[in-house]
């Protein structure tokens, strides 16, 4: 599924304030890389975040995210948001950038 360019623009506007960010197209999605690690991705109308498994994913799900579903059915430790407001998006992106930087 291709990514929604309007959502990608919203993510880009927030994440570029964090400094050096590289964008990579991956299987129809757009990934935003920080220090060589994926911080945020956009696929279709969803914004997704690698959160790790276990408790981190459970916490993300309790905060309104849902598990990212791959077409292949492979289970991945990514949380996804659909149509988040700007404040929620900024908060999640800030956390994702910190995780990518190991903070």
Automatic annotation (TrEMBL):
Transmembrane segments: none
Leader sequence residues: none
Domain of life assignment: Bacteria
Domain TfoX N-terminal, chain residue ranges per copy: 16-98
GO BP annotations, alphabetical order: methylation
Molecular functions (GO terms): methyltransferase activity
Sorted UniProt keywords: Methyltransferase, Transferase
The name this protein goes by in its record: RNA methyltransferase
Organism of origin: Microbacterium faecale
